[in-house]
Amino acid sequence: MKTYETMCDLLLNAVEDAGLSIASVEHYIETITLDKEFIFVCVPEGEEDSPKVRAEISFVWDSTLTAASVYGQGRSPHGAGSDLELDTPPLNLDMLPIGGSPVVELYIKYQFEVPSAERVPELADRLRSILRGVIGHENFPEVRFEVSVLPDGKVVVDDAFAFYWWQVDLGRDVEGEFDEIMGEVHHVLSALMTSDLGG
Length: 199
Hints:
- This protein has about 200 residues and is of the alpha+beta class.
- About 30% of the residues lie in helices and about 30% in strands.
- It contains four helices and six strands; from the N terminus they run αβββαβαββα.
- The protein has a six-stranded antiparallel sheet with strand order 1-2-3-4-6-5.
């Protein structure tokens, strides 16, 4: 089974192979559960300084996946000869999702700028049209606009994005799957760059 570090490397390689630039990379670890989270932002090549559109991609790697990737199936995490071995059941990958096949959810968030709140309905329709022209599967992104009302009554858009998840089966060829997903990310960002949302 692949490790967290291998998954990160495969994702970043797929991004570069797709012709995108990596703008930022972050790793987080939850100190109580030891769950890890990998987050990075990619942009179209040549747009690194002030990207109008970008994709934030992330996944959470829980401590069960870490244990399974380090110790394997059916082995004690304490090793042979450990005093704790008899008291600790062996790792059981059957406890992982999808009948024992480990999975991670790859979260993809396309972010873009909205010049004014008045344009939200128009841009929402335009975005859905762009996505339909690029995405040929049923895992269609949800579009979301987050707005605030200022003390003077003016409505402003704080954030605008489209997002979806991909369930990645770690028992399969994740490298090929990442190549396909990042290829789609590249097509979506390119389409957004040449639209009202990128200019």
